[in-house]
Amino acid sequence: MSRPDFAAPHWLVQLLRTKPVPVPWNMVVRAALSLAAPLAVAYALGDIAVGALMSTGALPAVLSEAAGTYRYRARRLGGSTAAAAAGYFVGLLTGGMPAWSIPSIVAVAAISALISAAGSNASIAALQMFVFCVLGTAQHTTGLPIGVLFGYFCAGAAWALLVALSTWTVRATSQERTAVAQVYIELAAMLSATDEPTSRVARHQLTTAMSTAYDRLLIARSWLSGRDATYRRLLSRLSAATPAVEASVAMVNAGQRPPDEAIDYLTGVAAAVLAAQPLPTPPEQPEKDVDALVAALYAGLKRIEKGDDRQRRTPASPLQRVREWAGSLISGPLTWVAALRLTLCVAVAEVVALMVPFERSYWITLTVGVVLKPDFGSVFGRAVLRGLGTVAGVGIGAVVLAIGAHGWLLVVLIAAFAGGAAVGKVRNYGMLGTFVTPLIILQMDLARTGSWPEVLARLVDTVTGCVIVLLVGYLLWPGSRRPQVGGRLADSFDTVATYVRTAMVRTSTSEARLARSRARRAAYRALADLRTAFQQVIVEPSQAGRQAVAWWPVIAGLERVTDAVTEVGVTIGRGTPAPSPADIGLVTDALAELAAAVREQRDPDSMPMPDNPRLAGVVDQLGSTFDAVRGPDLVEQSPLRLMRRFLPYHRRT
Fold first, then answer.
1. Which residues, other chains included, contact 300 with Cβ-Cβ below 8 Å and sequence gap of 6+?
2. Which of 420, 440, 486, 647 is the most exposed place for a label (fewest CB within 10 A)?
3. Which one-letter DSSP state was computed for residue 60?
4. Residue 376 has pLDDT above 60, yes or no
5. What pTM value is reported for the model?
């Protein structure tokens, strides 16, 4: 007798999955030091409650911490801390007066949602502004003057910034070096893969590494004058990797095994970049029996040794960035819809908080704001993970109470929870909630009262906030359960078509080669972003999640089309005749038809394909992608049929 299948649904598996990233030990140490040191000093001086208030001021920097250059981190952490201080001050001024605090919190929620459209740093700063505005409204119960409370907060914030940036002078370029070296490490890993699934995962990691490296270097000072020669040298090392990357992708797509000496050389380049040492000598190309792809790889290795000059770019001025943000608000209704949803749910939370019988029920509003952050993924997924993480966190808090933690033991626990929050931030949102919950309980509550009712109240408040989000912000909100991912997929087809137009022609100038390189990076970055967007939606049990599963074979097919295009481009660079403009037009027309079919919710029409042996790989992958769009698929329905269930909504989006 066979056992019944109790397999978990796909959305639950995706929801509970943690990212396979290494433990960020540097962030763990900084978080523990930032939050525990003020407590330790205050306890040694006889007033641990003061240390808890200062530790609260250090929390914005800990929650906003991210890998990157020191300049990037300084802007990110400084902006988040300043925004948190502003929100905290508003909360202090209005705390204890519902007639003032409720409108203030609702207004700050709306403003934070709009600010989020300005970019990732603005988004995290907006979140901290809202969170600490809510926390500030609860501080009136301490009985301390507003100036004293704000002073403690600022002292803790200054300490956290000092800890985060203290090694800038001795490790100024370490993050950039690590990012560039990681590109070469991932490139060697992709060439070392022994099967197609492993090589595809390695190619995804290579795309992420290249995007990260370019972002970090272009955020730094690479466009400035000669005094920034170190940054420009690193950018040259990164740009010079492009021919080797293209040749490697082409070889992997063709199923060819690269020479071991090429892999060893790439590993040596990574080590040299990390150690700021001269690059090793590239291997010489064999004189006999070398096809176009192998020759392109050896030429790419030679290019790494020579380096590559990149055109200087003019950084955008603050006024220009403000104008771009304002333009996105005017032309982007989705930002206003997200702001309206957040504002409405926060208002409901504030009303409910007045009705519950617990003191300091600000956690209801806090939960709603954190879960409904407009640009952080699935509302359903974050609400469920927040609830699960809080239940686990409250359990930890109960254990802390049961053992009667106080004094130095409390300091050690704060350090442990801070380190756990740093790990959870990069692994899983539920894990983050598991450690942040007891951390804030100890900072905001137990230092004053230390009672079991406080822990249970936090559990009820958080679950109430999650229920408000799921009910008002998800189940009852128009369109929240309808698929919204088809448009991004169609845009990715267009981006790949642009890459086809530049990759399948012979380039004779440096400007044309640079344009092809940028088009390739744009195509692969669009595919990486597309995967991320679908992974955020796939955690939902609604039709949106099921449609994301249905689209997954289409995304994989588009990635294979892009790899096949890269292979053709590499062979053209090694002397193979380029396809005719008519053949290129047939490929781009096929991609345009796929994009149109996705946008118009219909099966794609059959398209003529080029009868060119050099494009056989591209044609085969295009045919598979057409089949994937039409179905059948993982849910036994075409993704387009799933879209048609919500046809009016999709035509609006």
1. 241, 242, 243, 244, 245, 246, 247, 248
2. 647
3. H
4. no
5. 0.65
